[in-house]
Amino acid sequence: MTRFRVSLHITPRHGLLDPQGKAVADALHTLGFAAVRDVHVGRYVVVEVDAADPAAAEREVRAMCERLLANPVTEDFAVASVEAAA
Amino acid sequence: MKFGIVTFPGSNCDYDAYRAVVEALGEEAEFLWHKNHDLRDADVVILPGGFSYGDYLRPGAIARFSPIMTEVISHARRGAPVLAICNGFQIACEAGLLPGALLRNAGLKFVCQFVGLRVENAATMFTNRYRAGQTISIPIAHGDGRFTAADETLTRLEGDGQVVFRYVGGRGGQEEGWSPNGSMRAIAGIVNAEGNVLGMMPHPERAVDPLLGSGDGVGLFESVLATVAA
Predict the structure, then answer these.
(1) Strand, helix or coil at A40?
(2) Are B101 and A71 an interchain contact pair (Cβ–Cβ within 8 Å)?
(3) Which tens digit of pLDDT belongs to each residue from A64-84?
(4) What are phi and psi for residue A63, nearest 5 degrees?
(5) d(CA A86, CA B210)
(6) Is B111 in CB contact (< 8 Å) with chain A?
(7) Is B203 one of the annotated active-site residues of the chain?
(8) B205 catalytically annotated
(9) Which of B66, B146, B148, B190 is the mutation pick for testing A, counting most A CBs within 10 A?
(10) pLDDT given for residue B174 in this prediction
(11) pLDDT by residue (tens digit) across B188-226?
(12) CB neighbours (10 Å) of residue B30?
């Protein structure tokens, strides 16, 4: 078993109203960042997990997303990276 | 008849629910600690409002794995009544007892006010003491109450009479589609397909005495009592 750090992004499902993202986008416009088209605010989660290899670590974390870390009704998740923990 | 009120770490409307049952309804109530695996022979389970587990991750996401939820889910699957209020509604959705999810209010602010609710279905075990179409006044107090579900789920809920309460009004008017939190179709409360689990963001337990601003919530408790006692 090796310890892996699996990083993942959980974001509001595309198309659903994201008031927090909209508020941040409005604030950026106020600051003069006129090119901003859209902002989505989600969650960045790092799970340290013992697994046989990176693929097994990712599989395990995906199962965690489906059961708990993300809400399947309203959120999407994406695994950003899987690396051996120091 | 006995009501079991689940106390999670962070529940803060459990005592309000207790007083509504014992004082306004004159029935028996008992607190059920979330770590126990025992509903203490409760006929009706109440999942009360509050901020279980500090709303960590998502409101209700952790509480749904509390030990007592295994018994609450079996109780619901047997067809016995579950009244899920506010945070309880969020927990029931996370537990899969009800469809949909409650997201951050569209206005991003915590909303705490009386709202008008239209009784859309007066034939449920929770609403048989109301008239269909009647408007009742019940307070809300939440930051994450925006009911959200897939289009096909909404269509099914509407078609099967599972939409029980809808927000009405707005500032002084009868503005159709208005909600204090951006809920889809202005939905404030729903029942499951079997009709024995009610989830609602407004707090009927806080509207059981005109002294509190409204006594309109009593009818909900009387409805369950009439159904279970029958």
Answers:
(1) coil
(2) yes
(3) 999 999 999 999 999 999 999
(4) -65, -40
(5) 62
(6) no
(7) yes
(8) yes
(9) B148
(10) 62
(11) 999 999 999 999 999 999 999 999 899 999 999 999 999
(12) 15
The whole-angstrom distance between residue A83's C-alpha and the CA centroid of its chain comes to: 16
CB contact under 8 A, B101 and A74: yes
Among the partner residues A19, A69, A73, nearest to B149 by beta-carbon distance: A73
Interface contacts A/B by beta carbons within 8 Å: 35
In the predicted model, is pLDDT for residue B171 greater than 60? no
pLDDT in tens, B41-66: 999 999 999 999 999 999 999 999 99
At B41, the amino acid letter reads D
B14 close to A (CB below 8 A): no
Tell the residue number behind the tokens 């409805």, with chain if given: B223
Q: For chain A, list the domains and their CATH numbers.
A: 2-84 (3.30.1280.10)
Catalytic residue among B34, B75, B142, B203: B203
Predicted structure pTM score: 0.94
CB B162 within 8 Å of CB B192: yes
ipTM of the complex: 0.87
Q: Looking at per-residue confidence, does B3 or B212 come out higher?
A: B3
Residues B149, A20: C-beta atoms closer than 8 Å: no
Tell me which of A74, A76, A77 to substitute to probe the interface with B (most B C-beta atoms closer than 10 Å): A74
- Mean pLDDT computed over B90-102: 98
Structural domains of chain B sorted by starting position, each given as residue range(s) with its CATH number in brackets: 2-229 (3.40.50.880)
Give the Cα separation of B220 and B230 in Å (integer).
16
B57 contacts A69? CB cut-off 8 A: yes
Residue B105 pLDDT exceeds 90: yes
